[in-house]
Amino acid sequence: MPDSFDVIVIGSGPGGYVCAIRAAQLGLKTACIEKRATLGGTCLNVGCIPSKALLQSSEHFEEANHKLAEHGVMIGGTVSLDLARMQARKGEVVTANTKGVEFLFKKNKVTWLKGEGRITAPGKVSVDGTEYETKNIVIATGSESIPLPGLEVDEAQIVTSTGGLELSAVPKHLVVIGGGYIGLELGSVWKRLGAEVTVVEFLDRLVPAMDLEVGKAFERILGKQGIKFRLKTKVTGATKSPEGVTLTLEPAEGGAAETLTADVVLLAIGRRAYSEGLGAKEAGVAFDERGRVTVDAKFATNVPGIFAIGDVITGPMLAHKAEEEGVAVAEILAGQHGHVNYAAIPGVVYTWPEVATVGETEEQLKARNAPYKVGKFPFTANARARAMASTDGFVKILADKATDRVLGAHIIGPDAGTLIAELVMAMEFGASAEDIARTCHAHPALNEAVKEAALAVDGRALHI
Ligand code: FAD
Ligand code: NAI
């Protein structure tokens, strides 16, 4: 007789596995279904973790090749690349993380049901044919990459991020379609390892959701690193041959076509909610026009007892957003008041320099006619950044003109992904720019640039 549970979570990505752990911590009898051979979802297996491992390794290669000499660290002879070792290390990092989740499941007594989960009725889920009963179901089935008509992904010549993380040789020319998170992170990896990289982007800017000024600076800095950009351009077709791929490009607004050849093409034009084979539609769960599960503020679908979190619902497709929702829904199921503050979710592009953002952009403030003040501070004027020889970029803080409350913050610069945490915290606490400006920051530290940007909001930066 199969078990019954208080909660069955379908999918073990950052949303699902964190939800399962929190639910178990709160005393709910919990199972998590995963059809992959390992736990951790897209993020741990083919997303955040392997990409960060390769970004780290490729940055070391870049340093050895181009940056250490400036510090007087001379490497005799040429620096060579052992890509097989780099890829193997990436695999070790992934395994350590996926095994870590397995350990946490055991520690917290979460049952891992291995196989494909299917909702057969409200309160009933089957896993590869075995049916389980449960008081609550949490859908956390994540997302998949969006295909482009005319381009057949084979994960060898035309790859998604999954194939783009697995290349066994550095391509001579990598063409990336889409100048967003994946395109710029993986484009940076392969550029540093020696590929020529061209990014074809439909819009007139990179990472379109980010603050425009930061986006433009990002384009300049990556351009200086040698990445080529074809903005306002669309790909209309591809022809494969053993030598490579010939892409047909056209101006986004239409016009004369041209061709561009590549050894490898990385398709990174966004991701879409994934719910194939889940049985949710058949169980009556409502979806929106973009295939996302529709939920209310408490992550409940229209079917009692069925909830959804993470990439499969609306909002930024980010691991930490999914995790926050996982905790919140577990707490709600345990009778508590879990909630997520969507106004303070950071986004980070882990290139070098990194780009980090939280809250509203200047364009969003203008669009809603919000009176605001801007404070900016460049890393060229930060002592620690100079010591690191990493002075590209700046901190930008946007504050309410009347109340001085921080409305948004945008950083391009060394370790921006860590620096942004202070500003996320400030926003969580409803802090003003003055609060940050009056907080003592250690010297010499990169986050003094945050303090200086906060001072600059009222025109009183000290070091510029
Ligand atoms: P997922 O992680 O997608 O997990 C869903 C899981 O559900 C999968 O393992 C899938 O196999 C399983 N599943 C689906 N259907 C079923 C079923 N019927 N039965 C059983 N199992 C099922 N975000 C960041 O915040 N930081 C980053 O640095 C970052 N880097 C990324 C890099 C890349 C290359 C990619 C592709 C994504 C990256 N992301 C990053 C995004 C991040 O991976 C996602 O936002 C996050 O994984 C979403 O978590 P989730 O739990 O909603 O779903
Ligand atoms: P994205 O949404 O970040 O970027 C896609 C880009 O492709 C956009 O700039 C868009 O304008 C462009 N585009 C769309 N259609 C196009 C077309 N036909 N031709 C040319 N360009 C086109 O999506 P991406 O990079 O695929 O990543 C998916 C998601 O995964 C991200 O939005 C993010 O949520 C998550 N992610 C997060 C990371 C992080 O947190 N560091 C890293 C990688 C992914």
User: Which CATH top level class of the largest domain fits?
Assistant: Alpha Beta
Spell out which ligands are present: flavin-adenine dinucleotide, 1,4-dihydronicotinamide adenine dinucleotide
Tally of contiguous helical segments: 13
**Stretches with pLDDT under 50, minimum 5 residues:** none
Structural class: alpha/beta
Please state the second-level CATH architecture of the largest domain: 3-Layer(bba) Sandwich
Main sheet, how many strands, which sense, barrel?
A: 7 strands, mixed
| N-to-C CA distance | 72 Å
Number of DSSP strand runs = 22
Calculate the mean pLDDT score and round it. Answer: 97
Count the domains.
3
Classify the helix fraction into a percent range.
Answer: 25-40%
What is the H level of CATH, i.e. the homologous superfamily of the largest domain?
FAD/NAD(P)-binding domain
Give the CATH topology of the largest domain: FAD/NAD(P)-binding domain
Rg (C-alpha, Å) = 23 Å
GO cellular component, one term: cytoplasm
EC number: 1.8.1.4
Protein name: Dihydrolipoyl dehydrogenase
Catalytic activity: N(6)-[(R)-dihydrolipoyl]-L-lysyl-[protein] + NAD(+) = N(6)-[(R)-lipoyl]-L-lysyl-[protein] + NADH + H(+)
Core attributes:
alpha/beta; binds 1,4-dihydronicotinamide adenine dinucleotide; 464 residues; Enolase-like, domain 1; seven-stranded mixed β-sheet; FAD/NAD(P)-binding domain; binds flavin-adenine dinucleotide; FAD; flavin adenine dinucleotide binding; 22 strands; 3 domains
